[in-house]
């Protein structure tokens, strides 16, 4: 698939590199496509990977991945142009500078993004696992659960495939309003792993009685 990854930091850089290795055509949408760090990232990706300004990257893509900080999300989405019919994967978490959730309970970042991109097929995914897991989702022979949500059936099916392509176990939980639960899950991960425990290379797994994950 043609995937535009908007933001090439920990999350965007890692997802783009993994998807390029899985055979997808990846273009990074970044503010400075010629920057040395972007050239190094492209060199680490599969052949055919490129970089462009965000709106140019999104223009030809079937899937647009939002891997930027929450406080710039609205401005960046509005700058992407018409996203009609495109799948928009929201990886963000609505956090302030103290890593506290800024929205929740009766609203969510995922729903706000769907409002800002009303013609796109929005799916929330990849917000509950650390970038280390995106780089290598093998944890002692087990794979983390990748919870995702979004009401468009075609988009949810496509994103399920992209989740499987990089080695997670997908777990679809419903419409975009389920972001109200996925975003606090990310906040729980931050508190449990980054704040209270020594390190961030931990990930959630939904586990059945016989050790199997969700289907
Ligand atoms: N870190 C994790 O493990 C993790 C896991 C799940 C979800 N998330 C969420 O994923 C998002 C990205 O996190 P990250 O860790 O990847 O952050 P990061 O490493 O700081 O990368 C952020 C990226 O956003 C770009 N950016 C910033 N302002 C921009 C603008 N106005 N227009 C276009 N691009 C802009 C930056 O580009 P420049 O290089 O040009 O500044 C950079 O490539 C956040 O919402 C975070 O909550 C993070």
Describe the structure in your own words.
The chain has eight helices and eight strands; from the N terminus they run βαβαβαβαβαβαβαβα. The longest helix is centred in the last third of the chain and has 17 residues. Helices cover 35% and strands 15% of the residues. The protein has one domain: Rossmann fold, CATH 3.40.50.720. The protein is an alpha/beta fold. Bound molecules: NADP nicotinamide-adenine-dinucleotide phosphate. The site of NADP nicotinamide-adenine-dinucleotide phosphate (NAP) has 23 residues, from helix 1.
How does the overall form come out from the CA principal axes? globular
The hetero molecules present are: NADP nicotinamide-adenine-dinucleotide phosphate
The CATH architecture comes to 3-Layer(aba) Sandwich
How many whole angstroms does the radius of gyration measure? Answer: 16 Å
Order of SSEs, N→C? EHEHEHEHEHEHEHEH
Distance between the termini: 23 Å
CATH topology: Rossmann fold
